[in-house]
């Protein structure tokens, strides 16, 4: 499967490019800057330029699926949350529809289901993610939305817990590498189409955890 | 008509409460702080407390229509744009559905139709307004969306120009008082239900300008 990774230079994106290549897929790593091309190639991906605030859609040419894992990050202002995490995500959905990329996996956030959750400082982020998710859900794409809890840079464990329902006690932190592996598992399991899956650290092998009956 | 004005202490909201009262309607002025109650009463409105980030929905009790003219304003950060202009607006739509308030007029912004318009500095705002508008459009409410161009505190003229289609050359600034009058005109004309209307300064009497065939 040719999978366009949007945000291929991010924490999850880098892991995802590697894992897609390892699993025999053909990752396309979409980045904003040519200086990031070598890093994408080193991980087995085909680098392409795409700017979520500018020219973007042609970078999807030939892709079978797209994964949105771009984020404005914690060091930029909330205006970038609006422009990248929300509007950029919507533009990706539109671009996929335009280019016939039918399969879409979005990396959302745990409390996008309830944006006014604690801590208050994260509420604006959850609003943006929720609104992006809603747009994707209403689109024509075959979508899976992953809502991981707090992300860490810990080693992959190959195991997570997943819930398809709201779990208000929150959940354990999850390594970005395990989120990346969950994306691969979703792309390889059409049963996840139309599902919104909360992910947190846990004990279930990833391939089992993301099954709708898992 | 009992009309709940959400953001009754804002520039448009204050004008709107007065004009609704003058036109024989019963405005309910929803504000965040009891210190604003007297100002609402002075304009002929019934003041109620409502917090768009907290307890809000009960303030709509008994209303026939609601007007969303709350805004985080230019002096707050973009996080408030996400929390008030976007999520607060969505909460209002949900609250209206819950309380049986079927008619809704939203004050949006001119370039919500094309959020990546110039100037770049306003793009995050247009993203928030657009996403709020989209949510309203998909709701069950009888909605009218007004998208005024740059707002001024000039005297009311009683005249505007309105376009139902995109007009890429922008438009002339418009007094807040004329936007408020356009809201009253929309509430009194069911032909505006389901319409998104761009408003700018002009020469057409407001009641005529907001007609779908105007």
Automatic annotation (TrEMBL), chains A, B:
<dbReference type="Pfam" id="PF13460">
    <property type="entry name" value="NAD_binding_10"/>
</dbReference>
<dbReference type="InterPro" id="IPR016040">
    <property type="entry name" value="NAD(P)-bd_dom"/>
</dbReference>
<protein>
    <submittedName>
        <fullName>SDR family oxidoreductase</fullName>
    </submittedName>
</protein>
<feature type="domain" description="NAD(P)-binding">
    <location>
        <begin position="7"/>
        <end position="189"/>
    </location>
</feature>
<dbReference type="InterPro" id="IPR036291">
    <property type="entry name" value="NAD(P)-bd_dom_sf"/>
</dbReference>
């Amino acid at each position: 499967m040719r999978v366009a990774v949007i945000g291929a230079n991010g924490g999850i994106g880098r892991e995802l490019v590697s894992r897609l290549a390892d699993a025999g897929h053909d990752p396309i790593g979409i980045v904003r800057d040519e200086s990031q091309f070598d890093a994408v190639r080193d991980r087995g991906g085909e680098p392409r330029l795409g700017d979520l605030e500018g020219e973007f859609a042609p970078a999807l040419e030939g892709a079978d699926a797209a994964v949105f894992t771009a984020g404005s990050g914690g060091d930029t202002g909330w205006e970038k949350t609006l422009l990248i995490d929300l509007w950029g995500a919507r533009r990706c959905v539109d671009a996929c529809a335009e280019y016939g990329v039918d399969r879409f996996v979005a990396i959302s956030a745990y409390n996008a289901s309830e944006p006014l959750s604690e801590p208050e400082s994260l509420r604006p982020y959850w609003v943006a993610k929720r609104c992006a998710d809603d747009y994707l859900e209403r689109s024509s794409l075959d979508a899976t939305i992953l809502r991981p809890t707090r992300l860490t840079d810990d080693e992959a464990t190959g195991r997570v817990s997943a819930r398809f329902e709201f779990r208000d006690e929150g959940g354990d932190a999850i390594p970005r590498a395990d989120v990346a592996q969950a994306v691969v598992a979703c792309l390889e399991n059409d049963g996840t189409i139309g599902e919104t899956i909360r992910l947190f650290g846990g004990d279930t092998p990833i391939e089992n955890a993301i099954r709708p009956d898992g």
